Amino acid sequence: FLLQFEEEQGLSMLTLSSILAVRFHLQSTLWIAGRGFNNLSQVNMARYIPTGQLVAVKQTNLDECTEEELLQLMNEVLLSRLFRHSNLLTSRLVFSSCCQLWVLTPLMAYGSADTLLRTYFPDGMSESLIAYLLHGVLKALEYLHRMGYVHRGVKASHILLSGEGRVYLSGLHSVYSMMREGKRMRAVFDMPHHSPALLPWLSPELLRQDLHGYGVKSDIYSLGIVACELVSGRVPFQDMPPTQMLLQKLRGSHCCLLDVAPFPLGELGGLKVSRSGVDSGIGESVATGSLSHSATAPPTDRPQSPAPKNHSVTLHNLVQLCLQQQPERRPSASALLTHAFFKQVKRHTRDSFLSLMYPAVPLTSPEDPPVSCPPAPSCHAPTSASTDTTEAVWDF
């Protein structure tokens, strides 16, 4: 029944009675927050009654998973025990009950960056908010790369934001170890599972699948695609057939920032990029101008999404560095953390960046939730009900 319980001070084993106690203390009526893991898992919001804390519960029916998917789930569970970083989303509790796998994690009240784009920022986010999100992702990648792992699934739906404003990188089921027999390999050759859904974000060297393989710099390329995704609200290459996408990436061309046409990376130096930095700092975006408004303001008073037309030179340079065709020319995650684009992150507090989230509001539970009842042993998950159902993409 039990896999593992993770606490602040360490790991301790749970007995069957302890598992039933945890399920008893969880709100029996779970509010649907979205789906994940290739639509095989249902992500719910639940309340831990003793403390009143809201948590996320991911339930997966193991009978519906293939052997490869079961291996991915096992990999995710094991890595959750291994990793310790404030910007990586790891599980607090993992156990199986009959045919259901339960994974409890902290609630990401703002959901994923992908959901924020589709719901509140269809034309892209402000550069300040983008810098804050990417900075958190880079810190997680720096940790993973130092540990000898490549993520292989960096995309907006794997970037989650808590109600307190902390950025988390999820998607541990796609992580791959570069360590073999105690030694770190220079390159790996494994193709990620369910790679068709990841094609727009994957690097040219990973897609090429040749004798050179790929390494941690593949994640840096994916970060560049995510930057374009957050800027425009659209995923580069997404509307292309796979073959054309591969040819475009191998040629080194890409469609990215809205204020320039598609171009090869080598020609970036010849472009006349605006140095005005229209949306490069707090106080310069349309969203920042809304700080005096209440989050409950009428829809007519809400500003439109920023949709900047001219991007700062530092953002252009960041994207150029990340999307270099040759992986050895891309900077490491540690080097990118010192990039000029992220200077604005150090000058402001977490609360000031949360102000840029307007008009997005954190996910909350319905008022007056029902009283919990002890669950009966069953192979089926508890019945989900919600008075405020929000279907989102929580891609754990």
UniProtKB/TrEMBL annotation:
Domain Protein kinase residues, every copy: 29-342
SUPFAM superfamilies referenced in this protein's UniProt entry, alphabetically: Protein kinase-like (PK-like)
Positions of transmembrane segments: none
InterPro entries (alphabetical): Kinase-like_dom_sf (IPR011009), Prot_kinase_dom (IPR000719), STRAD_A/B-like (IPR047173)
Cited function: Pseudokinase which, in complex with CAB39/MO25 (CAB39/MO25alpha or CAB39L/MO25beta), binds to and activates STK11/LKB1. Adopts a closed conformation typical of active protein kinases and binds STK11/LKB1 as a pseudosubstrate, promoting conformational change of STK11/LKB1 in an active conformation.
A biological process term (GO) from this entry: protein export from nucleus
Alphabetized GO MF terms: ATP binding; protein kinase activity; protein serine/threonine kinase activator activity
Domain of life: Eukaryota
Biased composition range(s): Polar residues: 287-297, 381-390
Any one cellular-component term (Gene Ontology): serine/threonine protein kinase complex
Family to which the UniProt record says this protein belongs: Belongs to the protein kinase superfamily. STE Ser/Thr protein kinase family. STE20 subfamily.
Region (Disordered): 284-311, 372-396
PROSITE patterns membership: PROTEIN_KINASE_DOM
The protein's name in its UniProt record: STE20 related adaptor beta
